[in-house]
Amino acid sequence: MKQEFNNFAEFYQFYLEEHSNRYCRRMHFIGSTLVVAVLLLSLITQHWWLLILLPILGYGFAWLGHFIYEGNKPATFTYPLYSLIADWVMFKDIITRKISI
């Protein structure tokens, strides 16, 4: 059943609960890092075909983390926009060491 959230802050708390396993968070971090790297590579080399790899890398690593380590359904399937935003907020929180991996 779809849960209702009044704002992003409420959703982000739910999102973090769905990412309680550190290995799942690591998979998300790897995928997001690869997205940034490939995006930069594409901009530098102007090989625009590389952009097709962005969702494959980002979602591929994240979904593997959920299926292998977390054992739950990715929130992206139910809350696509909030989940995309939350992925990058969690990425920032990992870089700033607010969340551990």
From TrEMBL:
<feature type="transmembrane region" description="Helical">
    <location>
        <begin position="50"/>
        <end position="69"/>
    </location>
</feature>
<keyword id="KW-0472">Membrane</keyword>
<keyword id="KW-1133">Transmembrane helix</keyword>
<keyword id="KW-0812">Transmembrane</keyword>
<feature type="transmembrane region" description="Helical">
    <location>
        <begin position="27"/>
        <end position="44"/>
    </location>
</feature>
<dbReference type="Pfam" id="PF06127">
    <property type="entry name" value="Mpo1-like"/>
</dbReference>
<protein>
    <recommendedName>
        <fullName>Transmembrane protein</fullName>
    </recommendedName>
</protein>
<dbReference type="InterPro" id="IPR009305">
    <property type="entry name" value="Mpo1-like"/>
</dbReference>
